Backbone:
């Protein structure tokens, strides 16, 4: 993982180390897929939009204590590891319809949580 862009914190957040970097972050939600996939204590992390997806995968690998994990977006495909997390969030993040997007729940409206859902598995799960 690139130490200039991200470092894990005690609460599970991936946090920038260089204060000159942008504060713009996205929330990544890790969801286990498959029977023997280890569960995480911290399932949500904040990641800089400019970080590469490989940084997210490296962090996840360390958390599940595996040399390699299989990761998927939309329960179907693995994006390029060179892709920026911010772009993946814009394209595939839940609730990515914009700042003003709301969800109704029994007549009351509340703002949707926007996050990038990353399914992970110890074995190949799809395809």
Residues:
């Amino acid at each position: 993982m690139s130490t200039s862009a991200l470092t894990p914190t005690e609460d599970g957040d991936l946090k920038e180390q260089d204060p000159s970097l942008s504060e713009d972050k996205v929330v990544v939600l890790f969801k286990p897929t498959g029977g023997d996939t280890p569960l995480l204590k911290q399932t949500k992390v904040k990641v800089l939009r400019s970080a590469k997806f490989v940084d997210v995968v490296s962090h996840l690998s360390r958390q599940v204590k595996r040399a390699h994990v299989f990761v998927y977006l939309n329960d179907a495909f693995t994006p390029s590891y060179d892709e920026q997390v911010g772009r993946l969030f814009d394209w595939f993040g839940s609730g990515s319809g914009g700042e003003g997007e709301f969800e109704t729940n029994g007549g009351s409206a509340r703002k949707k949580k926007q996050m990038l859902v990353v399914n992970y598995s110890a074995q190949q799960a799809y395809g």
The longest helix spans residues 53-64. The first strand starts at residue 7 and ends at 8.
